[in-house]
Amino acid sequence: MxxxxxxxxxxxxxxxxxxxxxxxxxxxxxxxxxxxxxVILGPITAWFFWWSSYYGYEATGAAWSxxxxxxxxxxxxxxxxxxxxxGESFMTSKTLxxxxxxxxxxxxxxTGK
Length: 113
Description:
Elements: H1 2-26, H2 28-32, H3 34-60, H4 63-86, H5 93-111
Helix pairs in contact: 1-3, 1-4, 3-4, 4-5
């Protein structure tokens, strides 16, 4: 259950971070209000990542594992959000290879001791 909660909060954190960092490219109003964006999304994003770290460490017992899970899970959020909202394709060889490497990182974290 802890690993499921890790992913749940990690995905929410990455979604929130995506909007905080990239919303400025999608909506002019976000570009004009960086402080407001940071004040609203910063605490929410931190809260999601805090819980993902809590449950991830509980599940794996290692901060490094949580870090690698966080990195790898970002490749499930960023390409989809960037394609869906900004219209940038993730179907490039570079992005697909990085996504495959992220899957391999996740497999190593879940199967390795």
